[in-house]
Each structure stands twice: as C-alpha cells, then as structure tokens.
Amino acid sequence: MLELQDVCFTIKKDGESINLVDLVNIRIPRGHFMAIVGPSGCGKTTLLKTIAGLNPESSGGLYWEGRNLSVEGDLEASDIGYVPQFSIAYDPLTVDESVEAATKLRVAVRDNEELDHRIDRVLEETGLAAIADRQVKVLSGGQKRRLGLAMELVSDPKLLLCDEVTSGLDPRSEREIVRLLHDLSRREGRIVLSVTHSLAHLELYDSILVLHEGRVAYHGPPDQVTHYFSVHDTEEVYPKLATQTSERWQSSWMKHRAPYYSKLDKVRTKLIDSGALHLPLGVVNQPVSTSSQGESAPAAEVGTTVLEKVAPLTSPAEETPKVRTPGFMTQFMTLLSRRWRIFFRDRGQVFLQLAILLCFPILVTLFSENANGQIANLSDTRQGNIVAEIAEQQTVKRDQVTVGSAISGIIMFQVILLSLMGSNNSAREIAGERQIFEKEKFGGLRPSAYLASKVAFLACLVLAQSLWMGVFVNLFAPFRGGGGGFESHIIFLLLINGAMTAICLGISALMRTAEQASLLSIYLVGFQLPLSGAVLALPDSVEFFTQKFISAYWAWSGSVSALEPKVLHAVKSVIDTGLAERAECLYMLAFHVAAGLIAAWIGARRHQWD
Ligand SMILES: Nc1ncnc2c1ncn2[C@@H]1O[C@H](COP(=O)(O)OP(=O)(O)OP(=O)(O)O)[C@@H](O)[C@H]1O
C-alpha cells in the first residue's frame, strides 16, 4: 500500500510560497493501476516526482506498507521503477545491450544464467524479444517506450512510475502501452502510476486521479468520472475544471469521495476473487477507502476492514526476493564497456578522434626545420679582430633567435593542441548524457563508479594522444633535452592533456547543458595561449594572478626547462616570461588534474534532474 497524507510540495517564488502539490491524500493498494490526469501544468509530473522521492515533500507524509518513508528512509532503488518523459537508452546500442546494461547496473545477479533469465523475461514481458538485436536509434516511438519500461522492470520494482509514456504515440501504440502497463500491474502486486495527457483508454485503469492546480479534484473509478463532473464525455472534464477554483474542487471531493472509494474497493474484491489480480503471498489486500470518512491515516494504523485480508492461496508466487544493488566494480566495468561500445559504434566520433590524433602532430612538424638548426659557438680564443668578433656574436645571436623561437614555439604548439584535444575529449562527456546519468543514479548507480569509468575511458584517450604527439614530433624534430629530457617532455605533454581533460570533465559535470559545457571549455583553451606568456609577456600584475591557473604555462615551462643548457639559453634569449622549476611545474599540473577531478566529483554527485 502506498499512501500520501496531506502531501505538499512547495516552492518559493518572489519570496512567496507556492504549493505545486497541495494537500494530496490518496491510498493506492498493491496491484493497482492508476492514471494521473489533468490540464497541462497542473502538477502531474511534480506529484510523480514527489512520490518517487525526487521532489522531497515539503509537508505531509508518504507511507509504504505503513512505513513513513521520510522518517524511516526511502524505498530501495530497486523497488521503484521510474520511466521519465525522455529516452533513457543510448541510440548506438541494441535493445538487448541496453537491457543488459540496465540489469548489470541495477541488480546484483548470482551468475550469467540469472542475468540471461532476467533479460529474456523483461524482453518477453514488454514484447521486445523479436527486436532484441535492433539498434535503439531505429526503434519506433512505441518501441522506445517499451524499452524504457523494460529497463525499469529488470529489478522487479514494486512501484512503477511512468511519466507520459504514451505521449506522441498513434492511438494503436498508445493502447498497446496502456494495456502493457495494465498487465504489469496485475503481476507481483506491482503498483503502476501513469501520468498521461490522454483521456483515451481510461477503462483499462483501476482508478483515475484528476489533478487541478496541484490539488485532487477526483480519485475514483474511470467509469464514474463523467458522472462526478456532470459531463457527457471525458473530454469535457478539463473545461469543467476551469469553472471553479481548485480549492472548491478539492473540498468538494473530500466531501463526496466515500461512495467512489467504496466502488473501487468492490471492484478490487471482485478482481481478487476471480483470480484476475494476483497478489503475492503475504501481501495484505487493503482498501482504497480510509478508516474514517474524510480523514486518512497511515496504513499501519488502519483497523482491519472487510477487505483487508491476506491474498488467497491461489496467488502464484511469494513476494519476489529482495534485489541487491551491484557493487562498485560491476557497475564500473559495465559502464566502461558500454562507453567503449558506444564510442566504436559512433563512426563519426571515431573518425574525428583519429583525424585529430594523426593530423595535429603533423601540423606541429611543419615548423620543425628551424628547430633542428644548429647554434654556433663563440670561439674560445680572441681573434684580435673586433669586426670578426661582432660578426661571430651576431651569427650566434641569430642562431639563438631562430632555433630558440622555433623550439619554444613547437613546444607551445604541442601544449596548445593537446589542451584542445583535452577539451574535446571531455567537455560533453557528462553534460551530454546528464539526464540518463541522473536516471541511472536514481536507479542505484554509484557516482563514484560512474566517474571512475569516465576517468578510465578518458585516460586511454589522453595516453594515446599525448604519447603519439610526443613520439611523432620527436621523429622530425628530436627533443633537444639533457639526460631524461625527452621523458620529462612526454610527462608534461601527458599532464597538460590530462589537466585540460580533467578540468573540462569538471565543467561538464557542473554545467546544466552540453552546450554550456562546450562553450566554457573552448573559452578555457582559447585563453591558454595568450595568458601563458609564451608568445607575449604579460604585465607583472596580470601574470601574478593568472599564471597559477594557466595549465599551458606550466607544461610549456616544464618542457622548456628540460632542454639541454645551450638550447635552454637560446629559448631564454627570446622570451620575456620567467621559467619555473620542473618540479614546481609538475606539482602545479598535478594540482590542476586533481582540481578538475574534484569538480567532476562534486558535479556528478549533485542532483540535476530537469
Ligand atoms: N522545481 C520547480 N520550480 C518552479 N516551478 C516548477 C518546478 N517544478 C515544476 N514547476 C512548475 O509547476 C507547474 C507544474 O509542473 P508539472 O511539470 O508538474 O506539470 P504537468 O501537469 O506535468 O504538466 P504537463 O502536462 O504539461 O507535463 C508548472 O507550472 C511548472 O512550471
């Protein structure tokens, strides 16, 4: 039994409290199928989210089997299925792969046999078995809704909440989905609540809840709606609602609800007696009606009524055993393999990554000629000819400028291109799938497993991009480092790419949309070159504030410091910006990586349902 007692969900607007859900009192017994209807903006989705725990109630109480959920803790993630308005499957995956990933993320299965059994069962239940190999992107609207349901059913939820799962469907598909929801409510004592705009197929529901401005205007049998509102057709209900205030509808309903509840109870008894509604053994059949007229009370306090009896022994099964959420490693591995699969299925993405990987280092090598030039040495002996000495010094100076500028420029070019790759790697990584992530988090996904899978996936890209950049450029313009100089250079390339990837991942986790995250990440990369001081020296006052935050400066400075002394001297002769110690550069970049990951962790944990 799910019971809502005087439930309100209040928001503050311009300093004023507004109840989007206002004093809702309803009782919904196990095995019940209820439609939530009402004009657009009346609070249907808000009520559904309040029941799901996504909008914590501002006052009143929600009870499950007599247990106060706000006091004794919410239902287990596996006990609630929430099918939102948006698609929760990835287009490149197949139906079977989507259901498999949903199962592995939500249910700790004993072995592969149980996994296959669960997948086959929900595919069968939702009528998707025949198209299990089809990719999500080619599914029809109705099939996508079925898939959304299948992905929720994997954990055998006792409470299934559906938000507009029939909107936009043709009448036949709509009826099929409503029929499917009806059938799902007949098994295992599952409560199915469905928010819908449509007033078609109402006869398939056990009860209809009509909301008006967040208040209950009616909750009773579908065939009594027209009678209650004194209209000929259900289509006339919404215009009728507008004829008086929602407060009046609410108080009128509180006065007249008893006979409607009693009709609901009668129908329910008949269903159970006829065997059409199966409640699991041990589940008590409780009435929709309350113990006292006009007042509701927690189910646990309601006295036993005629209806309240243990379901008959003809019931097919015991209450399904408790489903456990899988551990960190299972969720991590599932997400990581799903991410690689999505990556390889998206040919455009693979092509872009390969093009960037191969072309960016080629771009750098276009400037390698001067970097390979020699820097003449000054003669040890005085020649006694002042003109010859000046000419020699000028030659050395010219070499230093040519070679020093080329080497500094090549290092900075590598650093900037790897920054760009870093931002391209991760700017959309979380923001682009935020809704699906929120949905999966609601279903029991650990943010730590999610973030770890992102870090593992991105680390592979960072490794490939940075190593290839360093090694390829080195073939054409060998890094002129002292002992261990090339290794240091590679580490700084890895760190700059890692830092930008981590920071943009943080941005991606904190922003509300993928567009915002991309834009901010691009700006961040765009500022790296001018603020690094590698091209133009910054005024001291600006440099003091900005330098700490510019990853490109630390990577460039660290790599330049790893050059052999003569080349380092040449570079120093062409720059006005001071270089930092290698160790300091390492610490600063490690700090940038850590800051990005901490931001990503904070953003991933944050609740961001639309
Ligand atoms: N967190 C929120 N803050 C402010 N206003 C909100 C919030 N959530 C919902 N609303 C507003 O509350 C009202 C009810 O929204 P809700 O989405 O529940 O309506 P609905 O009945 O489901 O509408 P529709 O049928 O069009 O989907 C709307 O006016 C909406 O803009």
From TrEMBL:
InterPro entries cross-referenced by the UniProt entry: AAA+_ATPase (IPR003593), ABC2_TM (IPR013525), ABC_transporter-like_ATP-bd (IPR003439), ABC_transporter-like_CS (IPR017871), ABC_transpr_CbiO/EcfA_su (IPR015856), ABCG_transporters (IPR050352), P-loop_NTPase (IPR027417)
Keyword line: ATP-binding, Membrane, Nucleotide-binding, Transmembrane, Transmembrane helix, Transport
Span of domain ABC transporter: 2-238
Membrane topology: Multi-pass membrane protein
Matches recorded under PROSITE patterns: ABC_TRANSPORTER_1 (PS00211), ABC_TRANSPORTER_2 (PS50893)
Keyword Chloroplast set for record: no
Transmembrane domains' residue ranges: 350-368, 455-477, 489-510, 517-538, 586-604
UniProt key word Transmembrane: yes
Location within or outside the cell: Membrane
MF GO annotations: ATP binding
SUPFAM superfamilies: P-loop containing nucleoside triphosphate hydrolases (SSF52540)
Protein name: ATP-binding cassette domain-containing protein
